[in-house]
Structures
1.
Amino acid sequence: MKDPMDTPEQFNDPELLAFDQWLNRSSVQPPANLLPRVRAHLQEPPASLDESIDQLLQQNPDLNDPHMVWKVRAQLQNEPMTGNASPVWYRWLSPLAAAATLTLAFVSFQSSGPKPADADVSLPLQASMESPLSDLDSEMMQIIALASNLEGMSDLSKLESVENLAFLFD
Amino acid sequence: MEDNEKPDSDPSAQLMLQLRDGDEAAFDQIVERWQSPLINFFYRSLSSYEQSEDLTQMVFVRLYRAAPNYEHRARFSTYLFQIARRLLINEFRRSQRKPLDSWDPTELHAITSGQDHQRLTELEEAFEQALKKLPENHRTAILLLKQQELSYQEIANIMEASESAVKTWIFRARQFLKQELKDLV
């Protein structure tokens, strides 16, 4: 049976045809200097919080909701980084610490073996795993945490893997 | 047309890959190619030339900044209009300034800026008013289908919805428009 919504014929009413024609006409022309103006914008630093949130959320498909940026922004406005944020931080730091520990354990396990010289390899690796943690931007962390909370990821099971956390270290 | 077609058959995606690889002139071509579709998409949603121009510029700025990480996963138009819709929703929210808990996506009706209105015939005015009354997702779906001539599948990808949901939105939008415009034509 044919899907009635696949049959545009039923909408061949004169008003809808006229509407479609009106819609198809290009009603406005872009300004002639649009490109130089875009280029000028590109010289400015990406200061927009929206842009930062947007770019960040795009990295995680679970959070890639076009409305999410507003939910996060509203939460940030309502809950500045004060003591209120500590439970969120705690909830995020736990899986972060767990993931980091697991990763280091895995790296250590891999690097341990019959060749004593290989043991040295784990040190720079450990350093490279730890330094991004200390460099994490606190505001971005809070944004991710808030977004995660808004998505209802309360059990954090999705976060308890190094892979799911990898985007934090980009 | 498949949404994940090869860059060879998607010239704008090819340009984006060139931009990613450092070809600045490719960006100029992207702007040249897409500025008109974008500004008209925004204009039909906002009825404000100034806002439409600002958002069009913002799309290109974001596109440029995203270029270093660009991968051809979908048609370029899908990628572009995902950014455009995201900015449009941000703009609706910014203008409406509604508290989060009272927010309903279906309430995202167009913002009218009186000073930007061109002289419209009575019929065009009716078309514009009818379009404004649609919920954001219905209006965006109709614009992408009829103005941008995109496929249902591509619209679904842009709007991060199922194809059947898009068909339903368009069906309802057409029913609403038919009712609103009755006796006018």
2.
Amino acid sequence: MKKIKVLGSGCAKCVKTAELIQLIANDCGISVNVIKETNPETIMNYGVMSTPAVVVDDQLMHSGSIPDKKKIEEWLK
Amino acid sequence: MLSIFTKLSDWLVYSVLGLVPDSKLAGAVHFFIEDTTKIFFLLVIMIYVIALVRASLNVERIRDFLAGKNRFFGYIMGSIFGAITPFCSCSSIPVFLGFTSAGIPVGITMSFLLTSPLINEVAVLLLLSLVGWEVTIIYVVIGMAVGIAGGMFLDLIRAERLLQPFALKAYQTGQVSISEPGINPRLSAIERHHFAKVELLDILDRVWKWVFIGVGLGAVLHGFVPESWFENNLGSGQWWTVPLAVLAGIPLYSNATGVIPVMESLIIKGLPLGTTLAFCMSTVAASFPEFILLKQVMTWKLLAIIFVLLLTSFTILGWLVNIIYVI
């Protein structure tokens, strides 16, 4: 199962990003574990300055906006 | 060109709604319609155009540019970048930590973060169209002065000692890190358009309610507070009115977009410029919700220092403007 972290300080966009990933995963029938990471220290350690950012299996994939559907589908493959 | 909005408002208020010219209600409604239509028209065009130009500028680039720079130059550049970068308060913490862990001094980072809410393209645009270029220049100079002087002061007292332990550690082990080349590839025209479109919708979504609230308040002031009230009571720029205005701004929370139409109305009513600016800047910059966010990376002591620093600078600059600039 893929482990996905959405990094962000709890703003509306971060919540939306997490929901979107969960939704697409459900549609594709893939089971994922989506966590929202709000701890500033953890976010810093990923070197992220623009949130929301997405970490898939401990690798930073995206930062600064709500990712589009295509990108999310690629990560889930 | 902008007089078309005055005419539109004339027509709507006097012909369509049939309000009596010179009545209080007509004055307020006229102010509201003219300002909201003008502001939204300008916002849509200008945000889009500026975003097209700015598409390749991001915080990572700014961090790389500021890291390892000469201190004095750093404060000025930090403040300039703060003014031109679009910025939502929810990213202030990651940006603060990103800068700090790259070894950028706290003062330079704070020059960036203090200037950011005060000056941005939307604020400058509104100032230019509502209160004219002279006041716009004074506003921008004051905003940047607060950012630069605030940053210098914080480094002078070695503010990094008052960060949360993990942030201090990140600063001490911090080193100049330069993003790998290729992270910011040249953008095509379509990518720029896409960026500008997203940016426009994003900013509009964030500021539209502030425009209505700000213009609404401005309109009420304009229509219903008698012309002579401010002049008689606060008009001669008594010294205590400036700190009072700064204190009054604290519990009020608005961003620059909402406060500028109020500023327009206050100036028209004859409130001295320094007092008006002190009030408006305090409303925008000294807001509790944003300060509470910073608690995640700073101790209460440092937060209190920054808060007092802001209030003192707005007061002093307000006094200065009242002395120098008599309308």
